[in-house]
Amino acid sequence: MSDEKLIPVSVTIADRSYRVRVETHEEENLRKTVKLINEKIMEFKTTLAGKDMQDYIAMVMLWYATQPAGEVANLMQEQELTHELERIVRLLDKASAG
C-alpha cells in the first residue's frame, strides 16, 4: 500500500451496504467490481429461482474465482464500453428527434 490516504467508500452488494477504505485511485475499480458482482447476482437470481441470497453470493464468488486471469477485467471493460455506446446512441436519438 502506498502513502496515499485512504478514503471511505460506501458500496452496496446484494442490498447490503458496506463501508470500505481504499486509496483514491482504487475507487473507480472498486465501484466497477461491485457493479459486476451485483449484475452477476441478478443473473443467477433470474436463472436459478428458489435460492436464497447467500446461495447467489456463493455462486458469484465461485464464478469470480474460476475466471481466467484478466477475464473479469476484460468483462468489466467490455461492459463499460457497451454502456458508453448505449449512452451515445441515446444522445444521437435525442439529437435527431429534436
Name the beta content range: 15-25%
- Flag low-confidence runs: none
Which assembly state applies to the chains in this document?
single chain
Alpha-carbon distance between the two ends: 50 Å
- The helical percent reads 55-70%
| Number of separate strands | 2
Per DSSP, the total helix count is 3
Mean pLDDT, all residues: 85
Helix-strand sequence = EEHHH
Radius of gyration of CA atoms, rounded to a whole number: 17 Å
Strand order of the largest sheet: 1-2
Largest sheet geometry:
2 strands, antiparallel
Structural class: alpha+beta
Task: Set out the fold topology.
Layout: E1 6-13, E2 16-23, H1 27-47, H2 53-65, H3 71-97
Antiparallel strand pairs: 1-2
Helix pairs in contact: 1-2
Structure description:
With 98 residues, the protein is of the alpha+beta class. The chain contains 3 helices and 2 strands, in the order ββααα. Strands 1-2 form a two-stranded antiparallel sheet. β1 and β2 form a beta hairpin. The protein is globular and about 45 Å long.
